[in-house]
Amino acid sequence: MGRMEIWINPACSKCRSALTLLDAEGADYTVRRYLEEVPSTDEIRAVLDRLGLEPWDITRTGEAIAKELDLKSWPRDEESRDRWIAALSEHPKLIQRPIITADDGTAVVARTEEAVRDALSR
């Protein structure tokens, strides 16, 4: 098991649970508080590639800023991809969390204990 990076918002209970589990398993990881250390559009692109997901798949559409931007009306297609990625970088609150990137080039959205264990088994 290599080194992992986990993107967290410390106020998020699912993030804290994921950290607790990583610690219990003795995982080697670094924490990125992505609201303070905001990911660039390139970093978001790279994480999406690793997740095998589209930007709208990791967007928290329930956030107030999502309603302000009217994200629900944005098309979910190749042409709109950059617009979504730009929004995630400009408003990192919109990024689903926690995201764990593993050494083997994969990533998971670790919202369940299962998903965290999946990252640990990579």
Description:
This protein is α+β, with helices and mostly antiparallel strands. It has one domain (about 5-120): Glutaredoxin (3-Layer(aba) Sandwich), CATH 3.40.30. Helices cover about 40% and strands about 15% of the residues. It is built from five helices and four strands; from the N terminus they run E-H-E-H-H-H-E-E-H. It has helices spanning about 15-25, 40-50, 65-70, 80-90, 115-120; strands spanning about 5-10, 30-35, 100, 105-110. The chain has a four-stranded mixed beta sheet, with helices on both faces. Helix 1 links the parallel strand 1 (about 5-10) and strand 2. Helix 1 (about 15-25) crosses helix 5 (about 115-120). The protein is globular, with a radius of gyration of 14 Å. The model has no long low-confidence stretch (mean pLDDT about 95).
